[in-house]
Amino acid sequence: MCGIAGLFSYDPRPDRGALHHAAKAMTDALSLRGPDSGDVWQDPNVPLVLGHRRLSIIDLSEAGHQPMESQSSRYMIVFNGEIYNFRELREELSGFGHRFNGGSDTEVLLAAIEQWGFDDTLPKLNGMFAFALWDRKAQALFFARDRMGKKPLYIGWAGSTLVFASEMKAVMAHPDFCRVVNKYALCAYMRFGYVPAPMSIFEHMVQLPAGGKMALDMRMLRGGHNLTPLIDTYWQAKTALEDARKTPITDEAQALDAFDALLGQCVQDRLISDVPLGAFLSGGIDSSAVVAMMQKYSSAPVKTYTIGFEEEGYNEAEHAKQIAAHLGTEHHEMYVKAEDALSVVRKLPSMYDEPFADASAIPTYLVSKFARESVTVALSGDGGDEMLGGYNRHIKGPAVWNAVQKIPPNLRGPFSQVIASVSPAKWSKLRPKSPQFGEHMHKFAQALQKNAESDVYLSLVSTWQDAKALTRVSEERMVPLVDPKMQVDCPLSFAEQMMYWDTISYLNGDVLTKVDRATMAVSLEARAPLLDQRIYDFVWQLPPEMKIRDGKGKWLLRETLKRYVPDELFERPKQGFSVPIAHWLRHDLKDWAYDLLDEKKLREQGHFDYKMISDLWEQHQKGRGNHAQRLWSVLMFQSWREQWIEK
Question: Which structural domain, as residue segments, surrounds residue 517?
Fold first, then answer.
């Protein structure tokens, strides 16, 4: 795993020394992504510089060093990620006469591009990656990102210089980069809790979307050119889903055997490493299934890592310990105190150099840091929820929508107002054993106001329903989630629709961003077998009842796991990977939050409607509702702004 950066100057009289210095500063900003080595390469004939920071995983020798030149010298590449089928590609390319100096996947990628070209190579790759390729002959820059969006890539302008990097902090290291907040991206962030691609938090900068590619003819481009229309795709979740539906699998026994074998293969592909390797184990279904497969194909006990919390309701360590004991892993657990988690809060803006409001970033960082003490690669269970229906909204959302549809349309508005008039705190008092009951009732009230499944889903995944009013913009810009061109053209159940929508939005915008930045902050590579493209294709061949059954999600994964672990060890309510933010904002983090939400500060910055935030803060402090999620999104932006704009 690595970090990449680079630039191309349109200055009519570029200073080559200054270009080299700027590219080195950008590359050095990514040192945690690649602590083992770093280098920059400057084209002798044009104002282009490529930079790379290396975390050595496969082929630790100098033969894997980057920036890397192709055998013909036509191409130079900086590559971040892993190509899991590189050995098969290498064997195929050897048949065409290609010879290799080392054992890296980057060298194989270059040979593949020389053999088949950029466009025809991308569909052949199975992996997680983002890379930049310089074509000397065509005087063109090519960019690509993996199908699910596991690895990030930002491209944009610093004055008249094209800049690109794995993380925004590298772009901000360029002396000409202008840190102007994109108000429409801010609005999207306040709605979702992350900045959805292709937007970025800054103007003149884009994120390459999952499955995206870009080809820039540097002889035709000019400084400041709008890059968004130049974004293209080589893979789309929509098309892959529609293709999979054409060959349905209806036999349960066949599906279970096939999935067992497929998951095993995907795990085996991710065990290739020249450095120590382990796995995160939360005790949940997804990570337990991955670890079970790892242990099945490992000759020695797999190293597994879990963190526990002292706070009641936030600890899964005991469950993980029992599963580790059953599977025979070399288990490591660490209990963290509230102050350990709280200490991470102030590190988040440096880690997530765009605003990011998923509080589970805190335990994700802690478990990554713990694992990094003894391994360099860790497999995770990410993707199981999106692939097989594991979120509460997949399971309960359709029932809520069905209930809404039974209420006459003329009564839905008044009914919604009645529910919303009672605070979440008062609703929760009716069910003391369900502290989130009040929040669920207010979600139901919001659903009553919707006329379509897509509107219900958008409501369920929105942190701020009124993000436009909060950020005072005239409109919300289109993102893939609401783009009509991204909607599927074949019948899906409501639950399946939500799984698909999660894949094109929440998965890469939130989950994979969280894991990438948290692991890279401690120089740890994370691999997610459940997000293999083959699993995506497979699960969309299945009917809904092989995903959600009897009020439980992930039926297929549960049945597979039962082959390796007794179901009493994992059959329990979904807990999640969270921390008590609501409590912290009333106690441990109250002063920190109060300073960031200072009225004078917010008014001077001009990003938000201060009154909306002030009212929410007061209600939360007085216990009139749990508004932690919305307040946290504001606080994470404010904390990010303090780190990257005001300093």
Answer: 239-389+499-569
Instruction: Answer with the one of 544, 569, 594 that is the final residue of a domain.
Output: 569
Residues 271, 303 contacting (CB under 8 angstroms): no
**Co-location of 194 and 256 in the same domain:** no
As a whole number of angstroms, the distance between CA 121 and CA 129 comes to: 13
Kindly list the catalytic residues. Answer: 2
Instruction: Classify residue 412: in a domain, yes or no.
Output: no
pLDDT digits (tens, 9 = 90+) for 510-548: 999 999 999 999 999 999 999 999 999 999 999 999 999
Q: Are residues 544 and 601 in the same domain?
A: no
Closest CA to 421 of 400, 447, 442, 449: 442
pTM: 0.95
d(CA 394, CA 277): 33
Among residues 47, 120, 103, 106, which one has the least CA distance to residue 76? 106
- Which of 234, 265, 299 is at the close of a domain? 234
pLDDT of residue 444: 80
- In contact, 315 and 412? CB cutoff 8 Å: no
Q: How confident is the model at residue 577 (pLDDT cuts 50, 70, 90)?
A: low
Q: Are 277 and 330 in contact (CB under 8 A)?
A: no
Per-residue pLDDT of 389-433, as tens digits, reads 999 999 988 988 888 888 888 888 888 888 888 877 788 888 876
